[in-house]
Amino acid sequence: MPEREILIYPKYKIELRSKSESIQDFDRKFKRVVEDLKDTLLAHPEGIGLAAPQIGLNLRTVVVRLGGKYDWDSKAGPPIVLANPEIVAQGDEQRDFDGCLSFPGLYSETVRPHYLRVIGLTEDGHPFDQIYQGFDAVLVHHEIDHLDGVLFIDRTQTLDDLYRVYMDRNGKPERVPLSKILQKREEPIGFIE
User: Fold this and answer.
1) How far is CA 176 from CA 54, 106, 107, in A?
2) Which range of residues forms the domain containing residue 134?
3) 84 is a domain residue
4) pLDDT digits (tens, 9 = 90+) for 154-166
């Protein structure tokens, strides 16, 4: 099955802001959704997590590639499915990197838990109870947010926390705050409301 297009905000604002429905049947239709999520994520090497709403399906399912530090980290593992995930404990909130395939090229520092205990179902419908720590917790928290229509820009504290990365004159990556970019623009940018 060919991968789906990742929905870009604000073009697909309604789909990305909707609350997702629980998975009831782990049938062939759900298996196709899982395959589609995995294929789509793997087709976008700059990503390590993807939620069903990001491909236009408001189902409580995400795929994550654990073990990475940033979206483009090649050390991340294979896609793992979390169906109907529910956070039952969280803690150790810290500022850390955040980015999203639905906001290409836009990044932030957000405050998220670095400890999560999540219950849910595997792609085969078997229950799991898993603890995630460090950046894996940040990733899982970010993807579960998508299931409730919450985006990383909602967790950004100030406009200065949002940034793009450009290469400087020496070919090194440089963070440029979105506030600085907007000062140079005449028209407002669509997704900041």
Assistant:
1) 26, 10, 10
2) 13-183
3) yes
4) 999 888 899 998 8
